[in-house]
Amino acid sequence: MNNTVVVFHHHLMSFAIRFVHDWLEGCGVSLWRRVTGAFIAFPLLVILTGLGVTAVENDHPLPNTFQNQGTSSFETTSQVLPSQGERLAVRRTRKSRRSRRRNKRLKSKTSTPATAGKIRWQVKVDGRIYAPPTLDSELVYVATTKGVLYAFEKDGGVLRWQKTMAHKLAKSAPVPGTRQLFIGTQTGELIAMEKTSGRETWRFNAGGTIISSPVVQSQTVYFSSRNGFIYALNTEDGSVKWQFNTEDIVDASPLIDQGTLYIGDYKGQAYAIDAETGKLKWNYTIEGPLLSTPRIAGDSVYFSSAVGAMFALTKASGMKRWSYTSPGGNAMIATPTVLDDQVYIGDVDGTIGCVNNEFGIRVWQRALKGAIMSSIQPFHQSLLIGTGDGKLVAIHPKDGRLLWKLPLESVIEANMALSGNQIFLGSHNGNVFAVELTP
């Protein structure tokens, strides 16, 4: 082997090992892995340079650059290689590019909609608020446990009128119809009053505490009672159109959809009843008390139970599509929320579950502080939740990450009412809030 080949061999090996080392360093690889990687390449380099030696020994001349130039030829050649400073600049450029790509991915993953909540107005009322506020074109109605009914202006919270009723109220919300307002009492009376003044027009005694909120459709008001009956009354005079006996306690509010009333009772029976005649269409047994209003979406109706189960049934026949159990089997007393192809539900332990609507499989879950007793309210690219530790929380529907939260001082149990970019809610300490949302 001649001297030219030896020199070529030596410099090629040194350059190749340093090249592998620097390249790995530029990729952000740790020191010991760079050294390991460089010397792992050593046997391959030996083979390659051995081929070069064989070529010379078999009188295959090397390129002119390396012929008969000795060490000085490599010194001259090495001058065209990047300097140490240039290599550092290249590595910094590579790191900067990787950093920008990483920051871009992180920003894309954690970017949130420009949405936040700001209290627009707040008023204090007499008594606790367990019932959801309800909305009319200009007014928001609020009922308290002390039997006081309020009508506030939506825009500024100005009191339009208030009425102190003879009986205490439970969780029944004041529901507006065309000209009247309907509400149930703890003594089992459904009361109709004028929307503009609160003057009573008629009352009906069901004989059992009314926890549920009534539903008004056309000339009929529907509600349930703890005596086990579901009623349909004429809105004009309170006369009975029909009544249906479930033979158990009913606290849930009914839901009307396309001529069918859906409701659940305390022993876990889900019912579909003809809204015109009061005749049973179907019923399905679900484990545990059904305390919340069901939800309709597409061809399905969704029920949640106090033993931590949620069921998706077909509207037409009541056949089970799927069921979902909350983590730890914690009670779910809120109405499920359906958005796109996901179903969202909270439990009393403060866990939000996102469930695939096709198969009932959990997609993600997120733990919040405080029980979740109110339904989740979609707003643009967020989900709004009132919590048991007195906060209005917004999370992202895709993965449940926190977007923002707004402290509201006390437990939020009742459902919220959304109108445009405002959401109205009440708390246990008797505060009514109008929160402005920025989409």
Question: How is this structure best summarized?
Answer:
The chain has 439 residues and is an alpha+beta fold.
Kindly describe this structure:
This protein has 439 residues and is α+β, with helices and mostly antiparallel strands. It has a domain of 78 residues. A 4-stranded antiparallel beta sheet has the order 1-32-31-30, with no helix packed on it. α1 packs antiparallel against α3 and α1 runs parallel beside α5. The longest helix is centred in the N-terminal third of the chain and has 27 residues. The radius of gyration is 36 Å and the shape is globular. The N and C termini lie far apart (78 Å).
Key terms for this structure?
439 residues, alpha+beta, 5 helices, 20% helix, disordered N terminus
- Binned strand content: 35-45%
- Based on Cα principal axes, name the global outline: globular
The gyration radius over C-alpha positions equals: 36 Å
Q: State the distance separating the first and last CA atoms.
A: 78 Å
Q: Within the largest sheet, what's the order of strands?
A: 1-32-31-30
Structural class: alpha+beta
Mean pLDDT: 83
- Got a strand count? 32
Helix content: 10-25%
Q: Regions with pLDDT < 50 over 5+ consecutive residues?
A: 1-8, 51-86, 106-114
SS summary, helix count: 5
Report the biggest beta sheet as strand number plus sense, adding barrel if it closes: 4 strands, antiparallel
